[in-house]
């Protein structure tokens, strides 16, 4: 496809603005451009066609089956977008005086109290701009608490190997040392390894639950007990709450701090990098350390609170406010019962698809999954040479988005499916049928999958080069 600059023809234009009646020339000589700005010159219909052609190359959740799930993009109800676009929310300025943004403070306060209720925490901040940033914030709360309670020497955070990759990264960013512990055979935390790892230097544990294999750890109460008895605190990576809303509360499981990715479970489209917001919830003992700018109810309305013990701001102002508006709209429109049903459907859909596929390809572990499950194509790869990536490319030719590939790292040739709550049985049946026929094709005609996709504009780009040395601008003369 041609660049818009390559379509440009001098003198062709689509703007029909009248000449300005005002004199022009107030720019001092030194500030003027030496050459006129180079803009593409096209007719209106050419511009329209150019962008429509680009649009057609995009595959999104609005096009068809998209098993990257809430972790990347689940279907987000349109009403949440409409509410976030209301001028009273969209056109405010973060420096406006409190009394002029009372409605916005009410949004933050209401969302905080509803989400605290959902996860069993006592206080919440919306300042962090993404999940990893939320982890960073939560670990700083743990650090501040230990400092004030005789635990300054505790410098180790235990991170099971089934954790999300951001957990060890955040641990290291906050100056803690990582103690990695392996998973047991069934994918849960190895309790013996945990018992052996805790000690007087334990600051805490970070647990991704459901873990990256899509499993809810059956020993969760024992896990938090072991860590607390050793004097550490428990961090719950709740980036993805899609499986457990209204069913289980991390606060009741013994966790002291949690982050929720509002851009995953709570309805903000974020595929492609933003915007995000992590809600960091804390138990009472950590509440005073939360970053400032939390909205609180007063006798006359709402106000910002900045606690003197706070770890300080982790982002400008009060976070990605419009993400919070969408989350509140989602929470209020579904209600407690609706959130619970959404999670139940997410789990049901994942298990339905898992059962359809498991006869044809092994899964990473046995038994029921939560909102996602992992196929391992290790055997298939050995037998036929068809890799997880080849199968994913084949899915493109079936008009579906591939699932997450090569994640989690502890499963070889992994394909992780997360269908989410909004897919119908028909869609899941069709998707399963397509994947099963690709698995059969891998055995009968592996060559075909090595050369897939054949229907897309771009087939097999050099993914490393695309990530490391992307060409994102076109050098014009
Ligand atoms: C997505 C995710 C994160 C990281 O969130 P970002 O917003 O991408 O920084 C952390 N933990 C889990 C379990 C996740 O799914």
TrEMBL record:
Glycine dehydrogenase C-terminal domain sequence ranges: 342-444
Entry keywords, A to Z: Oxidoreductase, Pyridoxal phosphate
Entry EC no(s): 1.4.4.2
Keyword Oxidoreductase (UniProt): yes
Gene3D superfamilies: 6.20.440.10, Aspartate Aminotransferase, domain 1 (3.90.1150.10), Type I PLP-dependent aspartate aminotransferase-like (Major domain) (3.40.640.10)
Catalysed conversion reaction: N(6)-[(R)-lipoyl]-L-lysyl-[glycine-cleavage complex H protein] + glycine + H(+) = N(6)-[(R)-S(8)-aminomethyldihydrolipoyl]-L-lysyl-[glycine-cleavage complex H protein] + CO2
NCBIfam families: PRK04366.1
Listed name of the protein: glycine dehydrogenase (aminomethyl-transferring)
Organism: Cloacibacillus evryensis
Higher taxonomy: Bacteria, Thermotogati, Synergistota, Synergistia, Synergistales
Name of the gene: gcvPB
